User: What shape does this take?
Amino acid sequence: MQFRKALDRIENEDVDGLDEIVYLMKIIRDSGIYNELKRAFKINLHLYNLEGLCSGEISQSKVYSQAKETLGVLFPESGCIIRFYYVQKMYTLIELRYYMTVQRELDKEDLRIIYSSGLDKSLIQGLNEFDNGLEYPEPTLEFFQKLKMVKWENDDTKKFANNLRLLKNEFAYPGFSFVKYFRLSAIEDTFINFIGCCSAVNQERYYLSKKDIITGYKTSLKLLNTDIAHYIVQNTRNEPNRGYLVCDSCNGYYKLQIEESPDDFTSECECGGKLKYKEKLTSAEIQTIN
Assistant: This one.
């Protein structure tokens, strides 16, 4: 019933880009990407303790540290939208999409790549054009100060966003599956609103408009449809070091690719020797191998 009402209300809206968003939602649903996202979420329910084991990797992101310093972790300013939690959910969605490619639990090296890749600033500054190959500047403390003050333009915009959310959930989490994936849906919604607020600040505004909401959806849907792992490697030349399999007999070695782990291989080399995993090769080992 809610979906039907939301669809009727959306059909009565006259907002540039809205028809494209509805079309893209259907494309993403039919492509199976939402199903892959749900599998990634189920496997990674624990996700990552952002302030714990991986703090060293996370500290490489100026976006993360500046956002945390400026936005705060508690409730937003009265009537405002953004707090630091919204930035965290951006990284969560990136991590989930990254997992959808590599199909294994992410380790510190993966997180180092994600947080140092610059994808965060590309999303914040480039929005739905984050993949255009441009080098975007780091968001400043002033940017986050402005972001902290963004509010809804009016109640009509808020209702518009809610109707789009209901529509998206029906495509992505039909029926009772929404209950199972409520947290995942909330991650998406938070990211969409975060990007929408970034869109507003990029245009020197302090209110979130319907156009900004559309930009948030365009960015979210494009992100889900982008192979983030290979995008990061291709655009930053910052490839994760997955380690090496080295033969103890012929000294040959194989460098693991981004989606591979040692468990994917047998322990025996073609020459009959034993393969051993090494995270790194020393210069002496490389000379011996060569």
Summary: The longest strand covers residues 244-247. The chain has two domains: 2-236, 244-289.
